[in-house]
Amino acid sequence: MTKELVAALFSGLVLGSLYALMSMGLALVWGGLRVLNLTQGTLYMLGAYAAVLAGRSGLSPVIGVLLAFVIIGVLGSLLYVGPVRRVSARPDHENAVLLLTFGLATLGEYAALVAFGPQPQSVQTLVHGQFTVVGVAFPWNSIMMIIATIMLLTLLGVVMKWTRFGLASRALAQQADGAQLVGINRHRTSMLIFGISSGLAGVGGVLLSSYYFVTPYIGQNYLLLALIVTILGGLGSMSGTLYAAFLVGLIQAISSLYLGTRWSLPLLFAVIIGVLIVRPTGIAGRVAQERL
């Protein structure tokens, strides 16, 4: 195994971590509410700008991550309580929510463009330094990103499996009317789903800001990849989404090494088409139909 391949594999894990946080939010909302929240990319971008503002204010990176989760999470909850809840009452609410969130995402992107300008902005890495193994440098910032993602998603898995909220979310996904009949507050659960998924996007944006330049368009660029990951993993499947996120990251990194960056996306789409031909419902499609 060459040094270049080791570096590419590590880069793929970092990319997978970035994709996982946004994609998991999409999977969480789809699994619980059967709608796609296209504001996820904008919330990702707002998390990145929150890191920019926190850096300017001299706040520690840990505080920046916590603030991003709370503030963006509250914003996501308000998004449900306000427009999404009203639109969800329509018979064709799936399409209505899709169009609504697309419009809100576009509005948020324009607002960020006005507030911060089009110029790329940078944030200092959350953790400095690196160590070298077999001639390959491993930045501590990237390692921290992978560890933080694994910890967050593990915590999310515990919450979804072992808490009352997780049980309510699964019941809502399987049969919303039946869940209400047994005393589950549909709107409160939906609000929490939007809040948690948005908070994950905010944290993802903070981590992203220490790895790439921040612009108003960065969220929409990653939203496309997050949608790919969510579909590949199986709509609504958290485990499938996690596998797909790291698979997509590794495919991009390795194909860029051997074929060049211009072939990265074509190869990725070829793999996705192949997987969906064999498994039309995605990697964990069967799970997606039964549970979150």
UniProtKB/TrEMBL annotation:
Membrane spanning residue stretches: 6-30, 65-84, 96-117, 137-160, 191-212, 267-288
GO annotations of cellular component type: plasma membrane
InterPro entries per record: ABC_transp_permease, BCAA_transport_permease
Compartment annotation: Cell membrane
Any Pfam family the entry gives: BPD_transp_2
Source organism superkingdom: Bacteria
Alphabetical keyword list: Amino-acid transport, Cell membrane, Membrane, Transmembrane, Transmembrane helix, Transport
UniProt-recorded Gene Ontology molecular function terms: transmembrane transporter activity
Chief location category: membrane
UniProt record, GO biological process: amino acid transport
Topological type in the membrane: Multi-pass membrane protein
Similarity annotation: Belongs to the binding-protein-dependent transport system permease family. LivHM subfamily.
Protein name per UniProt: Branched-chain amino acid ABC transporter permease
